[in-house]
Amino acid sequence: MNATERPLSRRSFLSGMLATTVLPLWAQSIPSNPDVVVIGAGSAGLSAARTLIAAGKSVVVVEAANRIGGRAYTENNTFGVPFDQGCSWIMGGSNLPYVKMAQEWHFDLLNHTDAGEALFIDGERASGAQKGAYYKAYSRMESATSAAGRKGLDVAAASVIPAEMEFAGTAQSWIGPMDFAVDFKNLSTMDYYQYGAIHTNYMVRQGFGAVVKRMGAGLPVQLNTPVSRIDWGGSGVSVETAAGTIRAKACIVTVSTGVLNAELIKFSPVLPEQKLSAINNLPMGLLSKIALQFDGEKFGLHRNQWLTYRVSNEMPAEACFFLTWPFDFNLMIGFIGGQFGWQLTAKGTEVAIDFALGEVEKMLGSDVRKHFVRGFLTQWSHNPWTQGAYAAVRPGHYGARAELAKPLGDRLFFAGEAIATPYYQLCAGAYTSGEKVAHEVIKSIG
Fold first, then answer.
1. Which of 102, 192, 219, 321 suits 344 as a labelling partner, its CA being 20 to 30 A distant?
2. d(Cα 144, Cα 117) in Å, to the nearest integer?
């Protein structure tokens, strides 16, 4: 690989919504005592429901929020154009179902694999030599982390990377907080190494969340129905919700590990120690978006590209990198994550927007604020039904994903991005996880 080429991998681009309401042909009414109850109407829960219904099983999906989609959510009210507050890229392996669906439903897809990048240093565009140093640092960080995982070491990435080199902070901020949602001190080398190769990387003009919403249209979903308790000690399951109790042969839990760690759902009997330990070792990381809308001035930046600048090598760096003018919308989508992301979002929307705008101003000059219209901060850190962006394994506990994925008593199953190996943390991975678990349930209940 040429030293001046940015690695075209999942780590280079962030992972990680206006649908029609046509009902699928296999849509069901909501049953009172279904074969299977699915908890959570995100990508995994909707996928599981589709698969079960296609196999002739009766299903009900209960969702605590007032909409389907989970962390896939497109809205148009804030900026007057589709804005993905959550998942933005259809990313993962080959032949992803979401790509086929989006094409079938006439969504506009943009291959974002070869996105360009503008690099700034102290308010000036980087020279060729500086870009080379940046790409070298990026490659060294990735190589050192992968090499440790390849050797079977499950340690913090911070403990294996080069001690000091130019652009180390910038590279770490991209790879850690803005991709895996945690800093290198909390990034497992094994988890990093075992991640699947990325063959698909599309943006959706109408929003990825809109594709997920369309996928779930017509499914038997009960909104505004949080679950408080799951009794899995008998011959089936009994699920207590705000709307009453549902009894079924099996239950698929697709809620985030943030919800599980907060114990918002009680289990009877209590989950085994191995399961509780796995949940504890899969805390939620944070990736938040600070979107900035401008009046049409483009500042010489290209659409659908990355905007990066040199930050301190002292971690966690105060970094906010951007996607510029997606689909030629007048938006810069800023990304913050990891420890700094948690700290900044805790200070509130106005402070976060001012920080992001200030970072753009440092790169492009004082005229930036004259052309600024409005900003927005996503609130996944404060959302009670997510409590973060996606799950990140604690270093030293690589097996937590596999342990959480194990069913209990042939009637309590788990699915979602946290256990969607090798494409965990992705919406497409969650879909595959839900589909896979649904087949396990079908086999279990006959």
1. 192
2. 23
The CATH architecture annotation of domain 36-111+202-282+390-445 reads 3-Layer(bba) Sandwich (3.50)
Same topology for domains 36-111+202-282+390-445 and 115-194+284-377, yes or no?
A: no
| Local confidence pLDDT in tens for the 446 residues of the chain | 333 333 333 333 333 322 333 334 444 567 789 999 999 999 999 999 999 999 999 999 999 999 999 999 999 999 999 999 999 999 999 889 999 999 999 999 999 998 999 999 999 999 999 999 999 999 999 999 999 999 999 999 999 999 789 999 999 999 999 999 999 999 999 999 999 999 999 999 999 999 999 999 999 999 999 999 999 998 999 999 999 999 999 999 999 999 999 999 999 999 999 999 999 999 999 999 999 999 999 999 999 999 999 999 999 999 999 999 999 999 999 999 999 999 999 999 999 999 999 999 999 999 999 999 999 999 999 999 999 999 999 999 999 999 999 999 999 999 999 999 999 999 999 999 999 999 999 999 98
Q: Is 88 exposed, middle or buried (0-12, 13-18, 19+ CB in 10 A)?
A: buried
Long-range contacts of 262-269 (CB under 8 A, 24+ apart): 262/387, 264/226, 264/228, 264/384, 265/39, 265/227, 265/228, 265/229, 265/230, 266/228, 266/229, 266/230, 267/229, 267/230, 267/232, 268/229, 268/230, 268/231, 268/232, 268/233, 269/232, 269/233
